[in-house]
Automatic annotation (TrEMBL):
Superkingdom to which the source organism belongs: Bacteria
Short name of one Pfam family: FA_desaturase
Protein name: Fatty acid desaturase
Start and end residues of each Fatty acid desaturase domain: 90-348
Residue stretches spanning the membrane: 65-86, 92-112, 124-144, 178-204, 233-254, 260-277
Membrane as UniProt keyword: yes
Keyword check for Iron: no
Keywords, sorted A to Z: Membrane, Transmembrane, Transmembrane helix
Organism: Novosphingobium decolorationis
Amino acid sequence: MSAQEALEVNPQPCEGAAAAPAQARVRAVAPGTTGSWHAQIPEDRAMLRAAAQLTRDIARARPEIYWPDMLGSAALGYAALAGAILVESTPLAVALGLFASIALYRALLFIHEITHMHRDALPGFRFGWNLLVGIPMLIPSFMYEGVHAQHHSRKRYGTIADPEYLPLALMKPWSLPVFALTAILLPPALLIRSAILVPLGVIIPPLRTLVWERASALAINPRYRREKPKGDFARMVFWQELGCSLWAIAVLVASYSYGWRPLIIALSVVSLTAFLNQVRTLVAHLWENEGEEMTLTAQYLDSVNVPPPGFLSPLWAPVGLRFHALHHLLPSMPYHSLTECHRRLSAHLGLESTYEKASYPGLLPLLGRLVRGTMSRR
């Protein structure tokens, strides 16, 4: 749900909502009220209205930015990966592998933009990205499309029905390293999925159902089960699955015939990419909701912005994801406009506003907050 949609659902402001920051109002909730603090936050309609009205003129996805960024990131990533495979110097190979991971990480995260993009916004971009990035990396766009939108749902966000939410701050301390390190296993798991499980599913329907429900979505909620695709989306899934399976089988055949070293290096590079994304996921939200439905303002305050001057944040949270809280206010805003959106809203709403309460200085302070939350649960 976007800021504009939230205003349309409940156009009348709550009493005093426009005047006081949301977190300040939470303290006035009567003792004995059940649920987490998120469940008690009403909408800050001044913020929602500003987000909807001040950013309309920069809401168009610009192909002159999207295409060169995606193509350049993919080209640099693949070139560096080829160098890591071909060079004989181990230090140079490691350096090239690190660079390849960062470049391919940026190229892969355009899947997030594709998920929110209007189908007519950038003709051919979804196809081009899948052909050049999604299928070669075995993460086609269908793994996010139709899934990520549920994370933005007013009724689903932060609940057990949200495929992308776990109350990590309320879990045990060991859960954080386990959560981050399991991402390293994602690339070999994707290779097995596309090369073996998907083809076998053609002749074993129960396996096909299992793979679709449990291993066909970029989700972190273990309770999530994906619904069967329908219509045009099902046809798109078929072609993307076919491309991934043919590519995965070809990679395994080539590795068996000519040696496993290139594949091992490639899997190592992509594992690092997956680990980077998992660390970013750890700090995309505060992860403090206990399962209640939340207002859009509460969702915003449970999410994270790392605005300038955080110079390293574009590396670990590229393609606009450093403004993840702002993204929850304006899900369809193209990534290249988020910095300007943030500037306008900060200037309009002021330093004491609800809007500023979702801003944090960087990755390490956010990780520290998350760790402290889990330590208090021992």
